[in-house]
Amino acid sequence: MQDRRWSMGAWGVLLGGVLAWPVQAQMQMDQVFLVRGTPARGRVTEVARNHVTLEASGGATRQISVPEIVRITFADEPVDLNAARTAILQRNYNQALTELRKLEGRKIDRDLIRQDAEYYKAFVLCKLAMGEGGDKAAAMEAMLAFVRSAPQSWHFYEAAETLGDLAMSSGKYADAAKYYGPLATAPWPEYQLRGQIAVGRALIGDRQYDEALAKFEAVLASELATAEGLRQKSLAQVGKAVCLAEKGQPDAAIALLQDLIQKNDPQDGQLFARIYNALGRCYIKQNKPKDAVLALLHTDLLFYQDPDAHAEALYHLSRLWGELNKSDRALAARSTLRERYAGSVWATLE
Known about the structure:
Blueprint: H1 2-27, E1 30-34, E2 40-47, E3 51-55, E4 61-65, E5 69-73, H2 79-89, H3 93-101, H4 111-130, H5 136-149, H6 156-169, H7 173-184, H8 189-205, H9 209-220, H10 227-246, H11 250-263, H12 269-285, H13 289-301, H14 307-323, H15 327-340
Antiparallel strand pairs: 1-2, 1-5, 2-3, 3-4
């Protein structure tokens, strides 16, 4: 039995070495992790706003469109950079910032690696500033500095969207609409729809309801019938409902929203959070605080994963509970808003 244990152990060591070889080989290549399928491996030879070019070991090249890409790792990058990316995917932004700060002062020869580190640091600073709170001006400057230094980065569209989100969190809605602009002119229809919806939401924030409604109607008129295209149309319906409510048509808006609830999958937490927030807004317009509370509690208790939507729900709940003489619940909602989403525009409103 002892000899058998030794032989099995020796075989395990040998097998482990054999299996480790391709892993080590992969680590010497750049890897483009895709939305679907296994990572593409080789050497990244070109990066542009719309695509990345990868040269495989045999010399064949492949052009990968930006919407297909989740992340890129580089053969000779510091391990702290990859750890930061992993933390970002898990939305652990404080941990990501800790990892990225380990790179400060370190010499990085390859431009693509240095740009990636700069982008992710700016991205994390923006996320922290919009969430638990942070220096929004510094975060904005960090992201703008990245865009100026690497205008052809494959992160360009995400950077533009992040700048728009950051401006929204500061109540700078005209700036937000400007930053969202590149998404609306991107070469992919899904990005175009997302960009128009983002601009529409910025216009709602600026109380330009007619202009916002035109953006949402343009999305709804699109012939795009992909899964993501249909999802964007549902989000546009939510925006349209908010505009209708604000323009004095809450009944029509409620009918739209209830239809969305019936036709969509509640697994889409972001969509349902926005639906119920819009429904709450409609009932507020109708002076029905109890109905508004019931709608907004869906976001607070079930669809709280989207930070901005949850912050909006908490803001309205803090006011509605006060109207219903539930001062303890009003205080609890306000406290959660300030503690968890100090960087949100909703935490600054009275």
